[in-house]
Design a protein that fits this description.
Elements: H1 2-25, H2 30-52, H3 55-72, H4 82-103, H5 109-114, H6 123-133, H7 138-149, H8 154-161, H9 165-186
Length: 187
């Protein structure tokens, strides 16, 4: 009996903390955002990972969820279920990511050849870039292609792909690291 009372009290305390953080977000309290993140990051990441089955995508969903909570905090109505509200945001973000991912396809050789190339790239560099890009995830490949080859800015890519700027930036940097590793292994 003692342990079940303790867990009940602990759950009530956590609920009160979460509601407090969300209410403080309405007043642009950045410290509340940091505290909320620490409190929910494991739950959010775990749910996202269970839906999308991809650790990198789950990390992106965690970031997107924190941003969404911050932007939507004024819509939150305290009803004693802040975690349910948060996890609903996670689920919606994860399902949206899966829908976006299913719409993306890989470029065929014919489509690749139709992309205007910058004059600075030699044929060998283009071949190396193409073979390396094919080893990236579809969304990473699209972001790299739009940035490096098409010359779009990250903000333009975010708008085009309907993704938050932070997500585009993290995917871009992650893809660049992968490309560097791939290219160093091929030397």
């Amino acid at each position: 009996m003692y342990s079940s009372n303790w867990m009940s009290i602990n759950k009530k305390e956590k609920t009160a903390r979460l509601e407090s953080y969300i209410l403080r977000l309405k007043q642009n309290d950045k410290e509340a955002l940091a505290q909320l993140y620490e409190e929910i990051r494991v739950s959010v990441y775990s749910l996202a990972l269970s839906i999308v089955k991809d650790p990198n995508m789950a990390e992106d969903i965690l970031q997107d969820t924190i941003i969404k909570i911050y932007q939507s905090s004024d819509l939150y109505k305290p009803k004693g279920k802040p975690l349910a509200w948060i996890l609903t945001i996670v689920k919606n973000n994860a399902l949206m990511k899966l829908r976006q991912q299913s719409k993306m396809t890989m470029l065929t050789d014919e489509e690749w050849n139709k992309i205007p190339k910058k004059e600075e790239l030699s044929k060998e560099e283009i071949m190396l870039l193409k073979s390396s890009l094919n080893k990236l995830k579809d969304e990473e490949k699209i972001i790299i292609t739009l940035y490096a080859i098409s010359g779009l800015k990250h903000r333009e890519i975010a708008e085009l792909l309907d993704l938050p700027l932070a997500t585009v930036l993290s995917k871009y940097h992650r893809a660049i690291k992968k490309l560097k590793k791939i290219m160093s292994e091929e030397k």
